[in-house]
Amino acid sequence: MHIQQLLEQHQIIAKNTVPEWMIGCFKRRSISFASGETDLQTHVFWLQGRNLTIDLRLPIESEMVTKAWDKCDEQELYQLANYEGWSADSTWQNEQLSWSGGTSFQVHNRWPEPAILSRVGDCMIEASPYESYIEDWRITSRNAGALLSLELINETNLTTGEIRHQGGALIINSEWAGLVLGRANELSLSEQSNALREQVKKSVNDKNFLTQVFNFETSIAKGNLTTGFDVQFSTQPERVGKTLFSLEGFEFDEQANEITQCFLEGDQQIKRRFSIDTIEASFAYSGKTQWNKSAKKWFDAEQETIGRYLQKLT
User: Mean per-residue pLDDT for 245-271?
Assistant: First the structure.
């Protein structure tokens, strides 16, 4: 089944959900810390389903690694080991968003605090409850389109019987999509250290360990349900420019209430199993939020000055 057929024939809307203004693909514009310093350059994407989050954080282009891990030298491996990508269950409670479960490329939680969130127009503000930072996010999925949010159970090579990945997610927010493929097994760490980069630095000649470390993917892609989604940013540099996932091979397993996808990778038959967060053929993404009536009247009346230099940020 093509993914478009899946969306049209099996609409399943999650009963529990974060607020709808929070759903979509967001790119971070800035993060400011209590130190008085601000980061405007790190590439950070946040894809939000009704109860699932995908997050990717990468350095600026000049500091990105551009080849597969097994072609990297020691310094490049260290850089790759500093990348961040994860998926998790998200819970909205008491005006705060928190995350639990899921799977992460890093071996410790770099962002342990819940988030206080609010949104005006295309801008979503995330504040630390302990006033340590504040982030400015801008929605990139401005056009109405599909909302698909699936949690990966596992990915199996049916040809060999090997489980390749466990945990992860697939989220589509209109023209943006994200995919997380977790490691097949938890890392066997030789030392109790919370810094993956240090573990990699000490194990540059241990191919088995490095294979475990980098058997993880978080990728963000742009495209559509007709021609597919092309990877823009990824923890796997060689994936950039490639197709995020095949649009074919999806099936709804009524008995298990799961989504499966089977596809060929070379001469290998691969199967993915997903649990369902939400499947919606159309969701009203927008760069706008509702006006208070008196505020809209003020905005219209003062356009000569406040409207002089307005623009939509991309």
Answer: 96
